[in-house]
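Re: that chain you flagged

S.,

Sorry for the slow reply, it's been a week of failed gels. I finally had a moment to sit down with the sequence you sent. For the record, here it is as I used it:
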Amino acid sequence: MWDTLYYFIMVPMVYIAFATLVLGLLFKFAVVFFSPGIKGTLGTYPRRLPRMLGIIKDAFAVPTAFNKTKVFWFFIVVYHVAFVLLFIGHLELIREFKVLQIIPHRVFLGAGWVGIALIVSVLYFLFRRFRSPHNAISVPEDYLLLILLFLTLFFGSHMNLASRHLDFQFDLAKSREYLSALFTFKPANPSDIVSPYHNVMLALHVLFANLFMMLFPFSKMVHSVFAFCSLNLKRK
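Prediction finished late last night. Pasting the structure tokens below so you have them in one place:
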């Protein structure tokens, strides 16, 4: 029974999660695209920079959050920088990219600190929602999504740190074989990526990642996909 459940989480559920994510985002884009236009303008002033430079500045420097509270701004920046590094690390799990090894490093980047930074940031975002006034505008899905993200990061970070500092067998070649097979729709048996003892940790990491992807398009966090669009509207 465990073998069947493990295979379902690692193969069919991954496809279901990605399909839900893509279709959900397409649905959201369609809703926005076919929505009635807004009369007038949403532009903000003053405008000290050209539109494109202003959009880039607002997206990466997050001045609105900085002006509101420095602590919140700090964790937003830490989270997004760490997330980019995490994304690069997962790309290296699929195949080797020589351009990413200009500075030689072991997969993942950050020697475990990236995962820790993300976990601390997500915990801050989660507990922040229990405080006023944020608890008044939070709905159950807000907490659920952050909990799913925390659990995904926790088990992933646990495996990364264990492979560096403990007797944890993680076969990078097998991981690339498994993920490459998923992308070519020729799924391979994922049971030998790690030692049998740690299969549970990997399954939990992938399970919570799948659930997060399936919920993401229908949550408030989907605003991140439309960030550049909304910032463009503010500068029209």
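What I noticed first: The chain has one domain: 2-234.

Talk soon,
D.
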